[in-house]
Each structure stands twice: as C-alpha cells, then as structure tokens.
Amino acid sequence: KSANPQWREQFDFHYFSDRKDMLDIEVWRKDNKKHEELLGRCHVDITALPAKQTNCLELPLEKHPGSLLMLIAVAPCTGVSISDLCVCPLGDPNERQQISQRYCIKNSFRDMKDIGFLQVKVLKAVDLMAADFSGKSDPFCVLELGNDMLQTHTVYKNLNPEWNKVFTFPIKDIHDVLEVTVFDEDGDKPPDFLGKVAIPLLSV
After folding, report:
1. Which of 34, 48, 178, 195 could form a Cys-Cys staple with 199, CB 3.0–4.6 A?
2. From CA 137, how far away is CA 191, in angstroms rounded?
3. Does residue 178 carry a pLDDT above 90?
C-alpha cells in the first residue's frame, strides 16, 4: 500500500569481467496471490560503472512513471569461482593444505566473517523431464547459497546432461541452505522448471 516503498535489501551477484552483462531490474505490484502487474523495468550497464566504489543511481522506469534509487558497487570478490573438474580449487594438495591451515581451530577467531567456503562439483543429471516437443530438454543448473547465485552452461537436446563443473562459494552464514535447481532453457521465454534439491550446510 505504498507508492514510495523502501526495501533496503542487499543482493550479491557474481559478475565475471569477460562477460558484457546488463543488470535487468523489474518492479511488480501484487494484488493477491494470483494477480501481479509489471510497474516498470530498467537496465544498468555493469561495464560502464566505475569499479571499487559505491555508485548511487536514480533509474527511471521505462514506459512507466517512477524511478528506482539504488546503490551499486562493482568490487573484486574472493572465494567465488567456476572451473572445470581438472582444475578445481581443492584439487591441488598444496592449496588444500593452505585451506586446512586457514580454517584450523587456532585460527578460528582471526576473521569472524570468514566462516569458510563451499565447493560443489556438479557432474550430471539423469532422466530429466522432457520439456520440448521433440521429447528432449535444454537443461542448465542454477546453484544458490544465500544471495549468491552461479549457473552451469546449457546442454542442448539432452535428458542426461553432463556439466562437470566446480563451483566455489564463500560461506556467510553456516545456517544457509544450498539450493540446486535444474531449468530448461526456452529461448527468450522464462526457463521451465525441471526439478530442485535443497541441502542445508549443517548437513554437509
């Protein structure tokens, strides 16, 4: 019931410099559980923003009245990576020893915010649902931990895709839940949901 809402929410997105990404933002109005209405959208060219500083942006909504006030910072992030199985961060014995030393009991209170990191190897999926008329799907996998999100590439026309990727996340809250979702890529349309699994970090 507000035309001037304040959310004060922070979201972390992993932006890799070899990509030319646009940040797409949409504002929606919800009347009830079933009815939603788009109030406007805007776009931010990430590559045009100065790095290592907080940018205060007032973004007008396209073809709709109103604007969004946002603080966007492009900063180097540590501990986040996507790699192939053969070069995964814990594959090197020396690096594994350094990690063990970094998180040993005597160093527990050196940096209270550095809880640890999670490494996930996404190997493959088996017997996925067919989402296309051809009896196949174009699956990709999305991993979410807190507000962090990374995803695999798409394997086209396949119900048993193999991704063989390694994802590394910094852990900010030991009570977080890793959510792994498989989608079917559908061109310009929103992807179709193929399945999901949730893994609490405390169960690992």
Report:
1. 178
2. 11
3. yes
